[in-house]
Amino acid sequence: MCNLICLNVEALMRVTHAVLPGMVERKRGAIVNISSDASTILLSYPLYSVYAATKAYVDQFSRCLAVEYKNKGINVQCQSSYISHEATVAIFISLHME
Q1: How far apart are CA 6 and CA 23, in angstroms?
Q2: Which domains are present in the chain?
Q3: What string of pLDDT tens digits covers the 98 residues of the chain?
Q4: Residue 51 among the catalytic residues
């Protein structure tokens, strides 16, 4: 669980913190974050709670940054996608239910 949070939340924060000052100085830039529709439309499955929560964080963080930095010439977007298959879900559940 901690690895998932570090990957989807902490890494996002660190990279954003690293690139924003240069973009603000140049008065332009773009940040494109990747989320997942798991945070909004995915049916509830066992063990998806932390994953879905971290992806919801990415989405909301991106929305807030977009508003905060729009006047500084920085465009922030969050791309979400839902690509799944019943077999993918079954494999995920079988691996994590043991």
Answers
A1: 24
A2: 2-96 (3.40.50.720)
A3: 788 899 899 999 999 999 999 999 999 999 999 888 776 666 666 667 888 889 889 999 999 999 999 999 999 999 886 655 566 666 666 766 65
A4: yes
Which residues does 3 contact at the CB level (< 8 Å), separation at least 6? Answer: none
> Of 45, 51, 57, 69, which residue is the catalytic one?
51
For strands 29-34 and 74-79, give the pairing: parallel
Element (H, E) at 74: strand 74-79
Q: How far is CA 94 from the centre of its chain?
A: 24
- pTM for this model (two decimals): 0.75
